C-alpha cells in the first residue's frame, strides 16, 4: 500500500484541500473597497491581501498563530508571488467567515489543525498573491501610460520607462482592475524565489514576523485584552467527570470583597469579581454539593483493566493483509505486549481564556485565541440568541494550544456566553481557566491500550497484530463521516508501511464520561509508539538489526526510507557510553525519522542527549520554521513520554498543576539537529509530525541497552 | 505603599495578599508579565526584584515596599538589551507566552555570570517552562547574548 493511498485524515484532507481549492480561489479574488484607518488608506486586493497607502502589505490569516509560525509561512507565500519587499509584510487574523476563510481541509469550516495550514493554503495564497500582482501591474501600466508587459515589479515597486511607483501608491487604482482569470495566472519559477525556502537572515530582517512583538512584550494575546470595567470569572466544575451541581451555598463567596456575582451555568458555578484574585478567593469559598449519579467513579487502573478485557475480542477492522488475525497463528514464536498510554493534558502556557462584551439583543464581541472561530461564533449565537452577523470573533495570538483551543463543543466560549447572559451584559467578562482547571477538566489525549502481537518465524516478522481500546475523539463531531471508523484512533496503526505478509489492525471504541480531544499529532501520539517500539522488539526477537530490517521492509516506501537513511547517516556512529534508538513515521502527509542518543547512568536514570531528525515535508516554505517545529515537536513528545500523565482516583483527576504534571524542562532537553529532504512535492504539515517518532526512538534506545520492552507510559525516571 | 517598577514610583493600595502579577496586569495594564501556573512552578511571571528573578504570581505586591521591580517592559540594562537582541536574532519564540519570563531569567543569569558555561545556562534557565520546547534555541540565545555583551 502506498503512503498516499492510506485511509487517514491526512489523505482525506489532501483530497478535500485540492478538491475545493478552485472554489476557495474564486472567493479569494473578490475585490473589496478601500477604508481609511487614520492617515492610512487600506485597500483590499482580494480577501487575503490588503495594501496600505503606507506601502504595507497585510495578509489575512484564516489560521491562528499560536507558535507554529503560520503568520510567517502563509505571508511568505503571498510575498513571493506579489513581488514584495519583506519589510512591507504584515499579518492579521481574518474575521470569522466560513465563506471567505473556511479551511477546505475541514470541509470548508474555519479551523487550524491537522497540520493543514500551509498545504491547504499553498495554491490559494499563491493565486491570491499572483492575482494582486497582476492587478498592481495593470494599475501601473495605466498610470505610466505603457503596456502592462513593460512594467517590472520588484520589491514592492512598479517600474517602467524611467517611472516608478510603490504598491501603496498603486493600490487604490489596482482595486478597480478586474481580477485576472485564475486559469491565466502564472506563478514564479522556483529558481527565482526570494523568500520561499530561504534561510532566516538577521542582517536583512528576514525572519519570523511575530518575533519583534513577542520579544518586546508588545504581542497581544486574549488574556492581555482588558477593557476598563472588565469583570473576571472563574468556574467551579465537577471534580469527577460527569458530575453535576447538586446544591450551592454561595454566602461565603459573595462575602468576599470584590465578588459581584455568583451564577450557575450548564457545567458548574461561576464566580464573577472585579479582578482575578477576588474571583479566586470567591471560588475557593464556594460550598457545592455535587450530584455524582452520572459520574465516572472508577480509577484509571480499573479503567485500564476494563480496556484489557475488551481487547480479548476482535474490534472494528481497520486493516487486513494476507490472513489478517489468523496469520498470527502458525509456525514460529508469537510475542505479545499490552502498551498502556495515559490521559494527557495539552497544557498550553497561556491557560484558556476569552473576553466577551455583550449587548443584549444587539451584539457580542469576543476576544479569544480561537482555533475554530466560526464554531465559537455559532456557540455564542446559540447561547445569546444572536445571529452570526451580530457576533464578532476577534482572533488573538494564543500562547500555545497543541489542539486544546479547537473544541467542537466550543466549551470556553459557551461558558463565557452563559455568564455574560446571566449578567445581562452589565460589563465585559473575562473568563479565565487556572492551571488547575486546565489540568483537571478533561479534553485529554485519550487513555488507551494497544495489544501488540507478532509472529516471528525463521528470522522474519510473518504476522503483525495491533488492536486498540480507546475512546473516540471524532464521534459526535462534524469531522467524522457517518458510518466510518474513527480514523483518529487508528491513524498510524492501520497505515503501517512495513512489508509484512499478514497484518491485522482493529479497534474498540470505548465510552466513558472523561472528555477527550486531539492532542498534538492526535492518534499518532500512541500509534507511532506502539508500532515503532514493538517493531524493534520484534526485530530483535527475529535476530535482526532493527534499522536494517526497516530498510528491507520499507523498500516500497521511498519517502519513509529516505528520511530514515538521512537521519541515520547524519547521526554517525553511536558515541561511546551511549545507547541509540531509531524510529520513522508518516503523519499528516509528512515523513519524519528521529535518532535518539541516550545515556543510562549507573543508578538507572537516563538522559536523552541528542536527537537527529530528518523530515520530508514537500516544498519547504521556511526551513527555519520547519526546524523550529521539529525541535519543538521533539520536546513536546519527549515531555509526554518521560513524565506526563493524568490518572484518576474514584473518577477524579489526581494531578493538579505543573508540580505533579511535570512539563519538560531545559535540563531534560536534548541537543537537536534537523535535516530536511529537498523536495518538489506540494508542501505538507510540520506542526505535528515531529512529535510521533521521539517516544519510540527513546524507548528503542533503552531497549537496545536493557533488553526490556517499555510498554507502560510515561517511562518515568529509570530505564 | 510605594513600589518602584521600572524606575517609576507606584502607589499600591490593594489587598495585602494580592500577588504582584495581578497588580501589574490588571491595574497597571503592564501585560508583558504572564500568568502560567499561579504556584511558582513555571516561571512565566518572572520579574526581577532587586535584580533577583522572582515569581510575581506568588509574591504579594505589598511585600515589595522599597524594592526595585523590573519587568519585561523595563528591561534596559546591557544584559537585558543583549538578551532581547539575541532572542530576535535566533527567532527563539514560538507561541511567545513564556518568553518574557525566559528573558528575565536569562538577564539575571548573565548579570551574575556574564560568561556562563553550558551547565550554568541550564541551571539558570531550567526553572522556566516552555511548552513549545524552545529550549534548544534559548540555550543558543543565552550564549549569543553573552557574546553581544562582549
Q: Can you walk me through this structure?
A:
The complex is a heterodimer of chains A (719) and B (150). Chain A has 719 residues and is α+β, with helices and mostly antiparallel strands. Chain A has three domains: 208 residues, Aldehyde Oxidoreductase, domain 4; 152 residues, Aldehyde oxidase/xanthine dehydrogenase, molybdopterin binding domain (Aldehyde Oxidoreductase, domain 4, 2-Layer Sandwich), CATH 3.30.365.10; 309 residues, Aldehyde Oxidoreductase, domain 4 (2-Layer Sandwich). In chain A, the strands form seven sheets. In chain A, strands 11-12-9-19-16-17-18 form a seven-stranded mixed beta sheet. In chain A, strand 24 and strand 25 form a beta hairpin. In chain A, helix 1 packs parallel to helix 4, helix 10 packs parallel to helix 11 and helix 14 runs parallel beside helix 18. Chain A is globular. The N terminus of chain A is likely disordered. Chain B is an alpha+beta fold. Helix content of chain B is 38%, strand content 13%. Chain B contains five helices and five strands; from the N terminus they run E-E-H-E-E-E-H-H-H-H. Chain B has a five-stranded mixed beta sheet with strand order 2-1-5-3-4, with helices on one face. In chain B, helix 2 crosses helix 5 and helix 3 crosses helix 4. The radius of gyration of chain B is 15 Å and the shape is globular. The N and C termini of chain B lie far apart (40 Å). The model of chain B has no long low-confidence stretch (mean pLDDT 97). Chains A and B meet through helix 6 and helix 17 of A and helix 1, helix 2, helix 3, helix 4 and helix 5 of B.
Report helical residue fraction of chain B.
Answer: 25-40%
Following the backbone from N to C, one meets helices and strands of chain B in this order, namely EEHEEEHHHH
Largest sheet of chain A: 7 strands, mixed
**Domain tally of chain A:** 3
Distance between the termini of chain A: 36 Å
User: What helical percentage do the residues of chain A reach?
Assistant: 25-40%
Count of structural domains of chain B = 2
CATH superfamily of the largest domain in chain A: Aldehyde oxidase/xanthine dehydrogenase, molybdopterin binding domain
First CA to last CA of chain B: what distance?
A: 40 Å
Per the CATH scheme, the topology name of the largest domain in chain B is Ubiquitin-like (UB roll)
Overall average residue pLDDT of chain B? 97
Low-confidence stretches of chain B: none
Give the spatial strand order of the biggest sheet of chain A.
11-12-9-19-16-17-18
In quaternary terms, these chains amount to heterodimer
| CATH classification class of the largest domain in chain B | Alpha Beta
Count the strands of chain A?
28
Structural class of chain B: alpha+beta
How would you write the strand order of the largest sheet of chain B?
2-1-5-3-4
Amino acid at each position: 500500500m502506498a503512503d498516499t493511498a492510506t485511509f487517514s485524515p491526512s489523505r482525506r484532507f489532501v483530497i478535500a484541500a485540492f478538491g475545493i481549492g478552485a472554489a476557495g480561489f474564486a472567493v479569494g479574488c473578490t475585490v473589496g473597497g478601500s477604508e481609511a484607518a487614520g492617515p492610512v488608506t487600506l485597500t483590499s486586493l482580494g480577501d487575503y491581501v490588503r495594501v496600505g497607502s503606507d506601502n504595507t502589505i497585510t495578509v489575512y490569516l484564516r489560521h491562528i498563530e499560536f507558535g507554529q509560525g503560520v503568520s510567517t509561512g502563509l505571508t511568505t507565500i503571498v510575498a513571493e508571488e506579489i513581488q514584495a519587499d519583506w519589510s512591507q509584510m504584515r499579518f492579521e487574523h481574518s474575521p470569522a467567515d466560513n465563506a471567505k476563510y473556511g479551511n477546505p481541509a475541514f470541509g470548508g469550516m474555519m479551523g487550524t489543525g491537522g497540520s493543514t495550514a500551509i498545504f491547504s493554503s499553498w495554491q490559494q495564497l499563491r493565486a491570491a498573491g499572483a492575482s494582486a500582482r497582476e492587478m498592481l501591474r495593470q494599475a501601473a501600466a495605466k498610470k505610466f501610460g505603457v503596456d502592462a508587459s513593460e512594467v517590472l515589479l520588484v520589491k514592492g515597486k512598479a517600474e517602467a520607462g524611467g517611472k516608478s511607483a510603490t504598491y501603496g501608491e498603486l493600490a487604490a487604482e489596482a482595486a478597480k482592475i478586474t481580477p485576472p482569470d485564475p486559469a491565466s495566472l502564472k506563478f514564479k519559477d522556483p529558481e527565482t524565489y526570494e523568500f520561499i525556502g530561504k534561510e532566516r537572515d538577521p542582517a536583512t530582517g528576514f525572519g519570523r514576523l511575530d518575533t519583534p512583538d513577542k520579544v518586546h512584550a508588545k504581542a497581544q494575546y486574549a488574556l492581555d485584552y482588558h477593557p476598563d470595567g472588565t469583570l473576571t470569572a472563574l468556574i467551579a466544575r465537577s471534580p469527577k467527570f460527569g458530575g453535576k451541581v447538586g446544591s450551592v451555598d454561595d454566602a461565603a463567596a459573595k462575602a468576599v470583597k470584590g465578588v459581584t456575582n455568583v451564577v450557575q451555568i450548564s457545567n458548574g458555578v461561576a464566580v464573577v469579581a472585579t479582578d482575578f484574585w477576588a474571583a479566586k478567593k470567591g471560588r475557593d469559598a464556594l460550598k457545592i454539593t455535587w450530584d455524582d449519579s452520572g459520574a465516572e467513579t472508577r480509577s484509571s487502573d480499573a479503567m485500564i483493566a476494563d480496556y484489557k478485557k475488551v481487547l480479548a475480542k476482535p474490534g472494528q477492522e481497520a486493516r487486513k493483509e494476507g490472513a489478517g488475525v489468523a496469520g498470527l497463528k502458525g509456525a514460529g514464536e508469537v510475542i505479545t505486549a499490552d502498551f498502556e498510554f495515559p490521559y494527557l493534558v495539552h497544557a498550553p502556557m497561556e491557560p484558556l481564556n476569552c473576553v466577551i462584551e455583550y449587548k443584549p439583543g444587539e451584539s457580542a464581541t469576543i476576544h479569544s485565541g480561537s482555533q475554530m472561530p466560526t464554531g465559537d461564533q455559532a456557540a455564542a449565537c446559540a447561547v445569546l440568541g444572536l445571529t452570526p452577523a451580530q457576533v464578532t470573533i476577534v482572533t488573538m495570538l494564543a500562547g500555545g494550544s497543541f489542539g486544546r483551543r479547537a473544541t467542537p463543543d466550543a466549551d470556553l466560549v459557551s461558558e463565557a456566553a452563559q455568564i455574560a447572559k446571566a449578567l445581562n451584559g452589565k460589563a465585559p467578562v473575562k473568563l479565565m481557566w487556572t492551571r488547575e482547571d486546565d489540568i483537571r477538566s478533561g479534553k485529554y489525549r485519550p487513555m488507551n491500550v494497544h495489544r501488540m502481537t507478532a509472529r516471528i518465524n525463521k528470522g522474519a516478522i510473518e504476522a503483525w497484530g495491533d488492536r486498540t481500546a480507546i475512546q473516540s475523539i471524532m464521534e459526535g463531531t462534524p469531522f467524522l463521516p457517518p458510518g466510518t471508523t474513527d480514523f483518529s484512533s487508528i491513524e498510524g496503526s492501520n497505515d503501517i508501511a512495513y512489508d509484512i505478509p499478514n497484518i491485522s489492525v482493529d479497534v474498540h471504541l470505548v465510552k466513558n464520561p472523561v472528555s477527550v480531544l486531539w492532542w498534538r499529532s492526535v492518534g499518532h501520539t500512541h500509534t507511532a509508539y506502539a508500532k515503532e517500539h514493538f517493531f524493534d522488539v520484534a526485530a530483535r526477537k527475529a535476530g535482526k538489526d532493527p534499522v536494517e530490517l526497516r530498510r528491507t521492509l520499507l523498500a516500497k516506501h521511498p519517502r519513509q526510507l529516505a528520511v530514515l537513511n538521512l537521519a541515520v547517516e547524519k547521526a554517525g556512529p553511536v558515541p561511546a557510553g551511549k545507547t541509540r534508538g531509531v524510529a520513522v513515521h508518516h503523519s499528516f502527509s509528512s515523513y519524519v525519522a528521529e535518532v535518539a542518543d541516550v545515556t543510562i547512568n549507573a543508578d538507572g536514570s537516563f538522559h536523552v542527549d541528542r536527537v537527529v531528525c530528518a523530515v520530508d515535508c514537500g516544498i519547504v516554505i521556511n526551513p527555519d520554521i520547519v526546524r523550529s517545529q521539529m525541535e519543538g515537536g521533539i520536546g513536546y513528545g519527549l515531555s509526554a513520554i518521560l513524565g506526563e500523565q493524568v490518572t484518576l482516583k474514584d473518577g477524579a483527576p489526581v494531578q493538579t498543576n505543573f508540580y505533579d504534571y511535570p512539563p519538560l524542562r531545559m535540563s531534560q532537553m536534548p541537543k537537536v539537529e534537523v535535516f530536511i529532504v529537498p523536495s518538489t512535492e506540494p508542501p505538507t504539515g510540520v506542526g505535528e509530525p515531529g512529535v510521533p517518532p521521539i517516544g519510540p526512538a527513546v524507548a528503542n534506545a533503552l531497549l537496545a541497552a536493557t533488553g526490556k520492552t517499555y510498554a507502560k507510559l510515561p517511562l518515568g525516571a529509570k530505564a | 505603599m510605594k513600589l518602584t517598577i521600572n524606575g517609576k514610583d507606584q502607589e499600591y493600595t490593594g489587598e495585602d495578599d494580592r500577588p504582584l502579577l495581578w497588580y501589574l496586569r490588571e491595574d497597571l495594564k503592564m501585560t508583558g508579565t504572564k500568568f502560567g501556573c499561579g504556584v511558582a512552578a513555571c516561571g512565566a511571571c518572572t520579574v526581577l526584584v532587586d535584580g533577583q528573578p522572582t515569581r510575581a504570581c506568588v509574591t504579594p505586591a505589598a511585600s515589595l515596599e522599597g524594592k526595585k521591580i523590573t519587568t519585561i517592559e523595563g528591561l534596559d540594562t546591557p544584559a537585558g538589551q543583549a538578551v532581547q537582541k539575541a532572542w530576535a536574532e535566533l527567532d527563539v519564540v514560538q507561541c511567545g507566552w513564556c518568553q518574557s519570563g525566559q528573558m528575565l531569567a536569562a538577564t539575571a543569569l548573565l548579570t551574575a555570570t556574564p560568561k556562563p558555561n553550558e551547565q550554568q545556562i541550564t541551571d539558570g534557565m531550567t526553572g522556566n517552562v516552555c511548552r513549545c520546547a524552545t529550549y534548544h534555541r534559548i540555550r543558543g540565545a543565552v550564549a549569543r547574548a553573552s557574546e553581544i555583551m562582549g
